[in-house]
Amino acid sequence: MDPLRIDRSAQRRDTIDPGACHAIVVRDGALLVRDGHLVEREPGDHPDAALTVYLGRDGERDLVALVPADASEANPAMSASREHADAIAPKPADASAAWVADGEAMVGLRDAIHLFAGAGEAGEREHELAATAVAITTWHANHPRCAKCGEPTRPTAGGWVRRCDNDERDHYPRTDAAVIVAITDAEDRLLMAHASYWSPGRFSHLAGYVEPGESFEQAVHREVFEEASLTVRDLVYVGSQPWPFPASIMVGFTARVDDPNFSLDEDEITEAHFVTRAQLAAHVADGSMIVAPQGSIARRMMDDWYGGPVS
Ligand SMILES: [Zn+2]
Q1: If you measure from the C-alpha of residue 50 to the centroid of ligand 1, how many angstroms do you get, rounded to a whole number?
Q2: Cα 170 to middle of ligand 1, angstroms
Q3: For the domain bounded by 176-306, which CATH number is listed?
């Protein structure tokens, strides 16, 4: 993977003037977009801010993520549990907000990632900015108080720390590791699974959170066995992707099984199939399988196996 496209300039976080930065507007996990690209409001053209977070330096420009002052910290989408956060719908354009100009709209991160996926290097830059802006502002919304003493905390260090003045404790944003694994059998068929909490027809790889005390690889073995009673071997690391729904990083692997006979934990996985390439193409074409959008590591692993874009 390439290095970061935006220089995070952590040494500037303590001294940066947010008002002198270009601002990416983010609210409730959605971003201000125009013509398929992030809107970057110039200095002097910012909405009133409830929160700014310094994102870093892009050439000669400094960038912040800006949460408008009319954003509600009590928005239910911001406090959803991680199991259900996946189902948060993208926010429609908020026509009542004075800071949304004609031609602009608030777009949920999932749709924004899909929009940026076709835009080459510029799209990768915007994907990085959008994922960072949503991840860090969602962390602020979900962590208003000190985890130790319960007193309110305040943002500091350019928005990368929350400080508890009561016990002089600093709290840092967290990222929850999750593994995702593309499993093939001896005939090179791919396992496609439907999770119980997904919308109908959606199929993807098995995935799950890494638990305290285990490695990524151990998490793969455990999750696959728990969800499907399959024993995998030959794990190969593919790559990782920030996945702030609300605070994950997806760590991708491929793995093989000798015995493709599975038994599902139906609380988690209600349906699964090992499919050939022709079967997957047919299922996608007739709509019986809805696969992950371009721009996600799930889709990348599927297309890698397929030998090109599935659709
Ligand atoms: Zn405290």
Answers
A1: 22
A2: 8
A3: 3.90.79.10
Asked if pLDDT for residue 193 goes beyond 50, the answer is yes
Structure tokens at 102: 């004609």
What is the model's pLDDT at position 76?
37
Alpha carbons 21 and 41: distance in angstroms, whole number: 9
Q: Do domains 10-171 and 176-306 have the same CATH topology?
A: yes
Question: Is residue 93 scored above 70 in pLDDT?
Answer: no
Q: Ligand 1 centroid to 145 CA: how many Å?
A: 8
Cα(161) to ligand 1 centroid in Å equals 13
* C-alpha of residue 171 to centroid of ligand 1, in Å: 9
pTM (two decimals):
0.88
Q: Where are the domains of the chain?
A: 10-171, 176-306
